[in-house]
């Protein structure tokens, strides 16, 4: 799930960059009044500002949602690593390995 959200997040970021670069700035309206507004006729009489602004706002909202989702995923992943709960030992001694016991009082027999 985290990989899917990450892929969507990257696609949204690239889409936002493209849309923002396509939009024209506020200073471009002054040039349109002198006859340079031919490209605005593709999107109708109101120009491309209204449509592109709405699409950029939607992509930005989705980008923030995926950012928050990725932060929640990262928090869940690291919460167990830094928890202060009871620590369970991962090293166990098998019960079948017993050392032979020697008694210090038993006499040794030599043959």
UniProtKB/TrEMBL annotation:
Residues 86-111 are annotated as: Disordered. GO terms for molecular function: protein-transporting ATPase activity. One of its GO terms (cellular component) is plasma membrane. The chain crosses the membrane at residues 51-74. Pfam families: SecG. PANTHER family: PROTEIN-EXPORT MEMBRANE PROTEIN SECG. Involved in protein export. Participates in an early event of protein translocation. This is Protein-export membrane protein SecG.
